[in-house]
Amino acid sequence: MTTEIEKRSLIADVEHRAADDKRTLVGYAAVFERLADIGGYFQEKIAPGAFTDAIKGDIRALVDHDMGRVIGRTKSGTLRLQEDGKGLLVEVDVPDTTDGNDLWVLVERGDISGMSFGFRVTKETWDETGAVPVRTIEKVNLLEVSAVAWPAYDDTTIGLRSLAATRAEGGARNAAAARRRIAEREARQEQKIRGIRQD
């Protein structure tokens, strides 16, 4: 397990609702059991129940993972988190602040269209029996959720450190084979970039 903060984003619609002078953004920061490619090195999915304990803490909603741009908080009731059958559902009451007003306009225009979350993994498993290692995140320490402009999986270097740490702890059975597959994949990608054909 990694002790570093990881971030993952989801390409999905962020819905905006306005009623009785209250503006609310609604979206999913994570979806369960969806395989995501992490930099071509491994795949990752989030298991149902990963957020069950994590959402009981004092979590903040941010703009683009910027800790200086808080737009909601569970403790104050302006951020509501729920783990349902699909994933981690987020509802944020958008404040009448510069960040809140700018965010509202950007979501209305479609410029911001994703949700994301920052976390530390507390329980994970790895499956290296296939062509690509698969990491299943089973439990997390949730630090924040964010509305993001770039809804794509990121921070692959942290994920790679997590994979290396797991292997160092003896959790991977086929570490040498997995390293060979990764090296072969990188070589194919390099050849493709340089225009070298493979027969």
From TrEMBL:
GO molecular function, a single term = peptidase activity
| Gene Ontology biological-process annotations | proteolysis
Please spell out the taxonomic lineage of the organism that makes this protein: Bacteria, Pseudomonadati, Pseudomonadota, Alphaproteobacteria, Hyphomicrobiales
Q: Which NCBIfam families does this chain map to?
A: proheadase_HK97
Q: Does the keyword Hydrolase apply?
A: yes
> Can you say what this protein is called?
HK97 family phage prohead protease
| Residues in Prohead serine protease domain copies | 14-165
According to its UniProt entry, this protein's organism is: Rhizobium binae
- InterPro entries, sorted: Peptidase_S78_dom (IPR054613), Prohead_protease (IPR006433)
